[in-house]
Amino acid sequence: MTLLLIAAVPAAGEKFKPGSLRLTPDTTHAASKLVVNAGFDQKAGARLRAYNVDIARGFRFDPRAVAKRCTIQQAQSSTCPAASRIGSGSSKVTIAGKRSTFGVDFYLTPPQQHGDIAGLVLSVHQAGSANGFSLIGRMVRLRHGPYGLELRFADAGRQLPPNIDVQLNRIHATIGARRAGHSLLTTPRTCSGNGWPFRLIVAYSTGTETYSGPAACSAR
């Protein structure tokens, strides 16, 4: 997502409802999984353009936790290998005004740009039909502020089916993996009373929305 887009985001935004984000376990400096159960309200006719997911400073993201990588070609053809999967769940998606239930899977790809930690794929698919799409993003480090990692899907609008309004209304998914002593997600070493902050910045054709809120944490 471009700096211009981020700069346009108003300081105030919507809050995630309690329980929308949680870590299992939620203890400090632990191999963990992120569980997301969140809903998003959009204006009628709003089309998804791009989004960022900002993760609290102190989290570690280790790509060595999965054995394989999904190539861009595999992502575009919805054939990512199972050994590259880092998460899964379900979602409510509105396509061309019709809301339906879709499955979601997350896969790891090689870094898309120099300096990236990794690339990620969000695959949205509906059982028994050809409906679905894949979005390719980048996991990057942030140097300053309360967020240390950012998942960027800057080209989501161009990766969606053309000339069709697509809205992600709700997602329930678990993200995390472990392999050979490596954890995809490791929680920070410290925990404040306010929890670990997360933020979602979504650009629609009708404007930009910001959702933020903490995931609860506990000290060892």
Please give a structural write-up:
With 220 residues, the chain is mostly beta strands. The protein has one domain. Strands 1, 2, 3, 4, 5, 6, 7, 8, 9, 10, 11, 14, 15 and 16 form a 14-stranded mixed sheet that branches. The longest helix is centred in the N-terminal third of the chain and has 5 residues. The N and C termini lie far apart (36 Å). 32% of the residues are buried. The N terminus is likely disordered.
* H-E string: HEEEEEHEEEEEHEEEEEE
The CA-CA distance between the termini, in Å, is 36 Å
Gyration radius from CA atoms, angstroms: 17 Å
| Low-pLDDT segments | 1-12
Fraction in beta strands:
over 45%
Mean pLDDT: 88
Question: Would you report the number of β strands?
Answer: 16
- Overall shape: it is globular
Number of helices: 3
| Oligomeric state of shown chains | single chain
Backbone structural class: mainly beta
Name the helicity range.
under 10%
Q: Which sheet architecture does the biggest sheet show?
A: 14 strands, mixed
User: In total, how many domains does the architecture comprise?
Assistant: 1
